[in-house]
Amino acid sequence: MHPLRSLILAAAGNDAIRRLVATAPVSRDVVRRFVAGEQTSDAIDVTRELVASGRSVTLDHLGEDVADAEHADQNVRAYLELLDALHAEGLAPKAEVSVKLSALGQKLGERLALANASRVCAAAEQCGTTVTLDMEDHTTTDSTLRVLAELRRSWPSTGAVLQSYLRRTFDDCKSLAGSRVRLVKGAYAEPDSVAFDGHEVDLSYVRCVNALLTGDGYPMFATHDPRLVRIVAERARWYDRKPGTYEYQMLFGVRQEEQRRLAREGETVRVYVPYGSQWYGYLMRRLAERPANTTFFARALVSHS
Ligand SMILES: Cc1cc2nc3c(=O)[nH]c(=O)nc-3n(C[C@H](O)[C@H](O)[C@H](O)COP(=O)(O)OP(=O)(O)OC[C@H]3O[C@@H](n4cnc5c(N)ncnc54)[C@H](O)[C@@H]3O)c2cc1C
């Protein structure tokens, strides 16, 4: 892993740095580039614009690693409010939600996370949309896949996320290829014992693309990597997959022109839109992905402090 990336991900866990970044005036501008806003209404406004431009959306209410059941419940209620609003605005057919189990109490117990995720899935079904379970660090993978399997008994279209940096993921892709699966490279600092590094992550991504496209499920290719986007397009043609039988996904604020280009070509493009006040961990992962963003941010922080 790039040393700067490890440093930023380590800094993400440091309380003093968290306070400095969260209160620095410059943070607002950087945050706004990647996060829709703090309120449900901000999320709805951004969703409306993206849908009007021909893109689909998945919304993430920010907040992870909750330490008590009350916070987990607050996060569930935020999703219920969001789903109601999507339904009321007629946006549910084009906008689903992404959920992190750690925000629903996974650290307090898998049963609590399952019960809370079930509340979100039930509400999503009523509103005419779906849920995808984000994948977090590798210590949670087995637990997240167990919860996914339980949820799919009642809500079979619940989406999974698999990370190509994990050595195990090719096998997971083969097992889940008949279902809705988002494929990502992976955003957490992981040890070599479980994860590939550098170019190996990309090679693994391509193996997983093939595994998912040969299945009869609905793969969701989440990457901004121009080379991987080209390879997905070529592989989709090879497997005779028509647009709409798979989709591309990218993050809000990243490679917008490419998102529009793919949508113009008739591809389904879904934008991952985070919102809410707990934006710190999310922002740190985005900065860790791109040293250029970090240098700009660090300079601005120093000049303001
Ligand atoms: C829709 C979506 C959902 C995701 N869900 C998860 C999840 O559940 N679990 C998880 O671990 N990870 C998730 N991720 C993050 C993912 O794992 C990667 O960390 C992230 O997508 C960066 O990898 P990349 O494939 O874009 O390739 P990279 O190699 O990081 O980037 C390739 C190129 O894309 C551009 N680019 C990438 N990032 C940025 C940026 N921040 N700003 C500007 N340009 C950029 C640059 O041109 C770069 O050269 C998700 C990503 C997306 C798009």
UniProtKB/TrEMBL annotation:
EC number: 1.5.5.2
InterPro entries: FAD-linked_oxidoreductase-like, PRODH_bac_arc, Proline_DH_dom, Proline_oxidase
Residue ranges occupied by any Proline dehydrogenase domain in the UniProt entry: 46-298
Annotated keywords: FAD, Flavoprotein, Nucleotide-binding, Oxidoreductase, Proline metabolism
Known pathway: Amino-acid degradation; L-proline degradation into L-glutamate; L-glutamate from L-proline: step 1/2
Highest taxon, organism lineage: Bacteria
Gene3D superfamilies: 3.20.20.220
Catalytic reaction(s) noted: L-proline + a quinone = (S)-1-pyrroline-5-carboxylate + a quinol + H(+)
Enzyme category, top tier: oxidoreductase
tRNA-binding keyword on record: no
Cofactor list: FAD
Keyword Cell membrane recorded: no
Name by which UniProt lists this protein: proline dehydrogenase
